[in-house]
Design goal:
It holds the Pfam family BPD_transp_1. With 295 residues, this protein is an all-alpha fold. The chain has one domain: Orthogonal Bundle (MetI-like fold), CATH 1.10.3720.10. It is built from 14 helices and two strands; from the N terminus they run H-E-E-H-H-H-H-H-H-H-H-H-H-H-H-H. Helix 3 packs antiparallel against helix 11. The longest helix has 34 residues. The radius of gyration is 24 Å and the shape is globular. The relative contact order is 0.13.
Amino acid sequence: MSEKKRDFIRFAMFVLPALGIYSLFFAYPIARGFFYSFTYWEGFGDIPRFNGLTNYIDLFKDDLIHIALKNNLIISVVVIIVQNVLALSFAILLNQKMKGHMFFRAIIFFPVLLSSAVIGYIWDYIYSPLEGVLHTVFSGLGYLSAAEINWLGDPTYALFSICAVIIWQYTGYSMVIYIAGLQTIPKDLYEAAEIDGAGSWKKFTHITIPLLASSFTINMMISVIGCLKLFDQVYLLTQGGPAHQTEVFGTLIYSIAFKSQQLGYGTALAMALTFLILVISSTQYYFMSKREVEY
């Protein structure tokens, strides 16, 4: 046997198991889901019946989908701006060799490690209008009107309350990415800028920000994709309520497919969401990657 064939066999031995697992658990379900999206199917025990583009046409007529799209976009904008501003601020502060910087990094990153169930329990207690942490704090400070707010039950506050949970949970993750980016910036650049008389703000805007472009790209893409496929936090805290005011694509897909037993329609919505994420993330990467610089 030739050396080339032996190399190919060794390559296949490593690649084929991973490819098989990927095909079984990812590629095949996606392909089947794409097929079911063109059918009327009520689930187990029912035979999928082909209905062409009916499911996709109905998506454009469904008012709940319009609400979910609006909510997903609002969450995306709020979370991306606030989370990345906080994460970058923490990263710059904790990248310094200050006393206890590793401890504070761990504290900020800790929420990332918690399960969705724990996150839901913690914030459901914090937001409780009767005995929650916010109720107790505002009552103690004398702000009785704020203490009486139903943070998850009032449509005015519910969506932004969920945004706060997401920001709290994932700011640490974004911070770590920014810290990794900051540590790759050569110190010589800052020293040269100081010699030229540049102050802190000029060093930040002319060195730090441009050289963190790749970190911005990664964090923005992760944030957008995460916000568009959001499910856990919304389902555990509000289940899309009150009156669908916090409905997002994830909870709506679950409700349509498993509560209403419209698996064909629910799968069509899931496929549409996948396409939306692909388009937005690809466009985002195309434009943001152009800002990346090499040094």
